[in-house]
Amino acid sequence: MKINEAEQAIKAILPEKRFRHSVGVSETAGRLAEMYGANKEKAELAGMLHDIVKYFSDDELKTIILRKPGTWSDSLDYSDKLWHAPAGAIYIEETYGIKDPEILNAVIYHTTGRKQMTLLEKIVFLADYIEPGRDFPGVDEVREAAERDLNLAVFLELQKTIIYLLSKSQSVYPKTFEAYNDLVQQQK
Ligand code: DGI
Ligand code: FE
Ligand code: FE
Ligand code: FE
Asked: In angstroms, what is the span from residue 188 Cα to ligand 3's centroid?
């Protein structure tokens, strides 16, 4: 699938604001890919498509996830906000025939991260957080880190996300903790 086709596809599916977020993630991911030596086309495509099923109902998302059991199916035991990530990967494989595991994993782990994230996974995870349309406390610190140290930026994003979830008394998916612990090791 070409990037223009992906853009047209999500334009037809997503509300305007989420469409603009997706274009922002795609452009940011492409720029980070150039900076850190990842495949720019894959980063842009994964960024464009990462939230494609964001507005499907919880029942639809569950049904999609259960069609293809994998190591992410345990997300059904956690927040429903996690489901659009693995469901999105299954959806783009089934609907557009995207089979590249690097792209699919970047979509699957864009919300939670996991330990030993690939370069492309880190880039899409980070682009989702710092694209120009985002505005939440601490985002500028992560944006600045992203310009010089990819692992530091991903670490800060995970740290802020976990602190935020704890402050709202929400559950934290174990893979998010695993991603955080993994990156703590690399901060020395
Ligand atoms: O889909 P987006 O809004 O662009 O962003 P996202 O896919 O990163 O979703 C973020 C939401 O997921 C945010 O409201 C926090 C929530 N969330 C709930 N539980 C967890 C979680 N995020 C992580 N990383 N880990 C969790 O356990
Ligand atoms: Fe998302
Ligand atoms: Fe995110
Ligand atoms: Fe997103």
From this structure: 25
